[in-house]
Structures are given as C-alpha cells and as structure tokens.
Amino acid sequence: MSLLMPAVWTERHRGHEPHGGYWLGVREVGDEEPERGDLLADGLRSAGATLVDAPDFGLDPITAVHDADFVDFMSRAYPSWVAEGHLTDPGQPHVVGYLFATRGFAARCRTDRRPATIRAELGLYAMDTATLMSEGTFDAACSAVHAAVHAANLVAAGERAAYAAVRPPGHHAGPAFFGGSCYFNNSAAAAQHLRAAGHRRVAIVDIDAHQGNGTQEIFWDRDDVLYTSVHVDPAQGWFPHLVGHADERGGGRGEGWNHNEPIPAGSGDEVWLAGIAKLIESVERHGSDALVVSLGVDAAEHDPAAPLMITPAGFREAGGVLAALDLPTVFVQEGGYDLTRLVPLVLEVLDGFEHSR
Question: Is 286 among the residues known to form the active site?
C-alpha cells in the first residue's frame, strides 16, 4: 500500500527519553521511547508517504488548549529538578511524581502561592508516576503539538486529509494535568486550530483502546467541538479508571456533545466497529464540518497494552467508515506499542480511509 496524504513528523521527538516509568511503585521498561517515533518515519517513507517537517509554532497553539500556568510549569520542571539537586539526591534522572494534590490534602492550597519545591509543585499537575520527564521532554511535547497543528494547517489549506506522526501522544493530557504517557494534547490542539481556521464545528473521534480523559475535559463545556471515544470499559478496571463512562455527556453548552462508547475487555472487530458506528451518528448529529481522529492502534489483538482484540481488517474498515463522513480530516497518532505491527496497523487505517471510494 502507498500513502497519498501528507504525513507531518519531526525529529524533535527524540528529546523525550523517559526510559520507562513506575507502575504500582515498580520501575518498568518503557514502551513510548524514541525508537517508536523513528519507526513511524521509516515506515511512512517505505510506504511512499511525503514527510513534512513540523515548524516551530511556539507556545500559542499549546496555551490555546492548556492553562498558561500549567504550560509554564512544564517548561520549568526539568531545569528546576536539576537545580534542586535531584540528579544526585535521591539520584533520580527523570522528573517523577512524589506527592499528589488530592482533594482533601490540597483543600487549603492557595492558587496564588507556588509550592516551594518543584517536587511539590509537580503534585498539582501530574496524575501518575508512569509519565516521566527527561531533559528534552518539554521540547518534544511541544513539537508533537506543532506537528498536529501543521497537519491541521494542511487540511485547512485544502488537503482532504493529513496525518500527524507524533510522539509523545496526547489524549490523556487535560487543561492543567498530564499523565498516561501524555504531556500536551495534540488532538485537542489540532481541533482548536481547525476552529481558528474557520471550521464552525469540529468532531474528534478517538479510536485508541483507552478513553482520552484529557480531551474530554478540555472540551467538556463546549458545543463547537464534539468529543467521541470507543474504548475498553473503565468499569472493568482499565485506564483511565475514574472516567470514560457512557453517562459522561458534557456540561453547560457542551451537554450532549461528549460521547463515550465503553466496550467490554476482549471485544473484537464486530463490537468495536459497532461502537465506532455510534460515534459517527453523533458526528452527523453535531453537524461537524471537520474531523480529528485520535489514531491509537493499541486496541490491536497483539498489542502488549491491548485490552481489546482488533484485527488489521478491523482497523482498515474503521478507516473506511471515517472516510464515509466526507469531512476534511486530521489523523493524530496516539497509542500503539507493538513496534513490529505499529506502522502496518496505522497504514491499514489510513489506506482504508484513502481507498474507501
């Protein structure tokens, strides 16, 4: 198969080197490392894709979907970690959560008073200990947003579709929090940029195996951006655990424009595609005139993080279903951690989209 749509990629992703994370207090080998981004680029080139470099757009597209204080913290986190001596005491080369601002604990925390140390300030924004920050994480996370926004630029300029081949992923990053291997929300930034480019109503369809709690939170109160997701049921104990249920429908003006389709662990193509069909119905009701696809392929049957059992044929059919909406479309890479199958599965979706008609 050959890919016709432009693919946006940047070598700046390599600065993010977490070397794993902490799962229930145990250090585990990482599955979201620089090799993953380079495999995407190599696979796209082999498929004949045109790779477009992502320009540096600065902080504007990031602060368009994230709180400014949070973005400022992210820019300071690693340098402050080093300045406070944590490379030697306790000998930790990555920024990692130490305490967390749970509701009861942080009830008297004043928002106008910054914590005295970066390790304490980190607790205001980090949602887990699995999402570490290395020296180049901030720049890499910014570059992922820039790539997604540039893909949106290409679509706004007339391309039928464009693919942002990014890492780190983004859909678990909210207005002022990060976690789940995500730092800034790339898909949200792409959707916001499409709005700024003149699209009246934008839909996000998230097909990652896990619900994009960050994207949901960013657009919860808005009716101009619809968030929809098919994912493994969090009621069965799957990340993000606390949210992602069907009764989360949005609030205020956004009520009814947040659509979760949780499906049982172990579900295959039939159940998953039926869930996507329901998301498509919401997109049509919304009257969206542009589409962002959070393209996770970690629902694949062989993925090490796979709670679902989706086949290559299922991913290909999903691409065709998304194409049937006939909307300008930005694909943004999310999960997918079986590195031997990552690129082929992504290409199944994209090729299914391009050759559906």
Answer: no
Q: For residue 231, which amino acid is it?
A: H
Domain positions in the chain: 7-55+136-354
What's the pLDDT at 255? Answer: 98
Q: What is the mean pLDDT of residues 163-174?
A: 98
Superfamily of domain 7-55+136-354: Histone deacetylase domain (3.40.800.20)
Q: Which of 16, 146, 171, 172 is catalytic?
A: 172
In angstroms, the CA 190 to CA 154 distance is 11
Q: Which of 186-190, 261-265, 352-356 has the lowest mean pLDDT?
A: 352-356
Residue 237's region, left for phi above 0, alpha for psi from -120 to 50, else beta, is: left
Sorted by sequence, the CB contacts under 8 Å of residue 351 that are 6+ apart come out as 1, 3, 316, 319
Q: Residues, the chain, total?
A: 357
- Give the confidence band of 111 by pLDDT, cuts at 50, 70, 90: confident
